[in-house]
Amino acid sequence: MTAQQIIFLIVALYTLGSALMVVTTRNLVHAALWLVSTLFGVAVAYALLNANFIAVVQVVVYIGAIAILFIFAVMLTRKDMRDAGPQMNSNWWAGALVAVLVFGGLTSLLSGWSGFQNTAAALPSGFDAISLLGESLTSPEAFVLPFEVASVLLLAALVGAVYVAFNKK
Amino acid sequence: MNEWIYVALFIVVGLVIPIGAIGAGFIFGPKKANPIKESTYECGIETVGESWVQFKAQYYIFALVFLVFDVEAVFLFPWAVKLGQIGLYAVIEGIIFVAILVAGLVYTWRKGMLEWV
Amino acid sequence: MSFWNDPLKVAADWLEGVFAGWGMDAILAHVLVAFLGVFLLITILMVLDIFLVWIERKVVARFQDRLGPNRLGPFGLIQPFADIIKLIIKEDTTPGGADKVVYNLAPVLSMMSVLILWAVVPIAPVMLGTDLNVGVLFLIAAGAIGTLSIIMAGWSSNNKFAMIGGFRQVAVMVSFEVPMLAMLMIPVIFAGSMNMNAIIDAQNVWYFFISPLGAVIFLIAAIAELGRAPFDLAEGESELVSGFNIEYSGMKFGMFYAGELLHAFTFGGFWAILFFGGYRFFGLEQVSPFLAILILVIKAMLGYWVIMWVRYTMMRIRIDQMLGFNWKFLTPLAFALLLVTALMNALLAGASTWLYVFGMFLANVVTGWIALEIARSATRKERASVEGPKPVEAHH
Known about the structure:
The complex is a heterotrimer of chains A (about 170), B (about 120) and C (about 400). With about 170 residues, chain A is mostly helical. Helices cover about 75% and strands about 0% of the residues of chain A.
């Protein structure tokens, strides 16, 4: 096991552990904070892949905006922040069965993948991901139309949120 | 990946130093807990009501508008990096992008969502 | 390379040689030397933080026409150490009903978010924490962790005032990040890279002269990000009795307080790096890295001075005025300036340096003037609608 694999294993276990705590903890704000920890683990995974820009964007957008939105939403809607009822309902065996089947299916599908034995190709030297991203976002042969449509999508999200909140007011 | 090792070291040391400082406070300070010392502060009187306040919906609206502009800024950063080399039509594309979202801000403004009260 | 030219590499190589002599693996030795370097930098920063407390108190005293601490030691220099000792020997209380883990984690995260900012600050041409090619966005990412720590502090204290103060502070910090993001893009446009070192290298003319309005808007947004006056509603003692850090005492409060001062100094440093050329000063920085560090510290101190000056001169603004100012004036202005800068950058692409600087400067001044005129006319309209028509005076 190379050092990189060990580090990735640690990060993956940390992320999965945090995700498990998100769904099992009873206090809602604690769940939101465990979600922050999970998102941070994903950002570290991006950093391990040398995707610097995406790692930093993950922290800026997910932790800096979405997690804060979650915490505000939790505090806006609940007076009592603790879940009082039982954690599992009577159909827990069906959920467990589906989870085991999906896990088995995924494992059998991935066991034949050659990616586990080969290491990824090294990035060419002087590889500037942000430069390439900027070029592809603005050049007419690449993704300029999705770039503009993304802004329309954001506008739709903003208008929708304002409409929903306005009705509540 | 080498660069991120430094960031990881900074995070580790950045966590160790405050924990060390607060730990020093914990070690060197007296530990005489009594219920009056640990009661909630409310300008020197007993607390009135619970400590949960009615959360204003405005906090959520501002966080939401910030989220939209944050994602917009994330899209604009690669655009800004490449701007010097691409020329005028990238500027036009950027103007369209920002104009659509500023129109959204104006809509939010006119609907009165940006007021605090 | 001599010690004078590249001290850090010489020391690092020597140390790595020592560790390899002890039979340590090469990569582990490298990581250990990096760890020691980081530890040294952060220790220096904490000592600097202590002196920032002294500087702050002396400066506020002079602004208020008094002397400031002058009992302990010459010019009161020992005063911050006395403060630290006092904070350490205070009792470490946790308020009853507070959420213990979150309550104790908040000051740690707050201080950590300030310390990791120094990972991307280029101290000298050859000494750099990390040459991250997204250094500019890293600034915002560290700010996001700081914002989270304030929510944690406000919520976990189990205190109405702390909750209100914390949420208001976060609403302000989050709102003012939008113009800051837009203004961070301006040095990126000029330098063509998000790397802090590249931005410094590209500043043959300081970006303050190319985009003065951008520097001013960045400063305003940074002061709001820091939670200092005139945007310090969370700490307004007359309003919210210290806001989110009511229930904190002892070293935990010390972490918040010292963290805020160090954060202000760090933002002074970033203002210097992004708009005033960082460690560059007409070629002096090539002489020795120590000189480059000195230049950067002096510029950061000047930026910190401006931040302190604003704090001790202006009154606190109300929360609705703050948010209205941000979303109705500063954000549209920031994006308009960004687009004007992008347009002028494309139009003046091939021009000589002086024409470029002059054209950009003019564009900035014109944009600022138009924005102020719009704001002025809006104010006149609002004042007229509130006051009613002026009575016609009889002329004799």
